[in-house]
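Customer escalation, tier 2.

The customer says the design service returned an amino acid string that "doesn't look like it belongs to this structure." They asked us to rerun it and document both sides in this ticket. The original structure tokens are below, unchanged.
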């Protein structure tokens, strides 16, 4: 079961990376690499923990998304969910590097709110002249 868990997680992370980097058109995207490393680490870690605490639940979670005995409403919901997530991942890469729909999105750090002249901002966040925030860890390639 552990080998199947590692194989499924590897396939998932590779597919995730392919969607993100193909839609972005570049491999030069540090934030996406961090996301993939976290996904590649947490997936097996949670699976190994679940294998020790509840192997039956892990076996159920590793079953295919669509199953023959699944109610039709569940199948429709899961199909919609999967399509939306795939489109969302593609849109992230397209927006970040190609079309830049949200170029001046000052809400990208909405969890952090600092006044324009604040001296309390973390060292990796810089406050732009228009009051927006930019990160030096993962700077956007534009603006």
């Amino acid at each position: 079961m552990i080998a199947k868990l590692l194989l499924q997680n590897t396939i998932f992370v590779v597919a995730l990376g392919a969607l993100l980097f193909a839609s972005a058109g570049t491999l030069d995207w540090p934030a996406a690499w961090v996301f993939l490393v976290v996904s590649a680490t947490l997936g097996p870690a949670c699976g190994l923990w679940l294998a020790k605490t509840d192997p039956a639940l892990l076996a159920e979670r590793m079953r295919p998304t669509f199953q023959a005995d699944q109610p039709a409403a569940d199948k429709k919901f899961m199909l919609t969910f999967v399509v939306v997530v795939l489109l969302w991942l593609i849109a992230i890469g397209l927006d970040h590097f190609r079309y830049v729909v949200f170029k001046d999105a000052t809400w990208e750090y909405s969890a952090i709110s600092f006044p324009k002249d604040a001296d309390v901002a973390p060292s990796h966040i810089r406050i732009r002249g228009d009051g927006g925030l930019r990160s030096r860890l993962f700077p956007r390639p534009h603006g």
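Tier 2 assessment: The sequence is consistent with the input. Residues 49 and 55 are 9 Å apart (CA to CA). The chain has one domain: 2-103. Sent an explanation to the customer and offered a walkthrough call.
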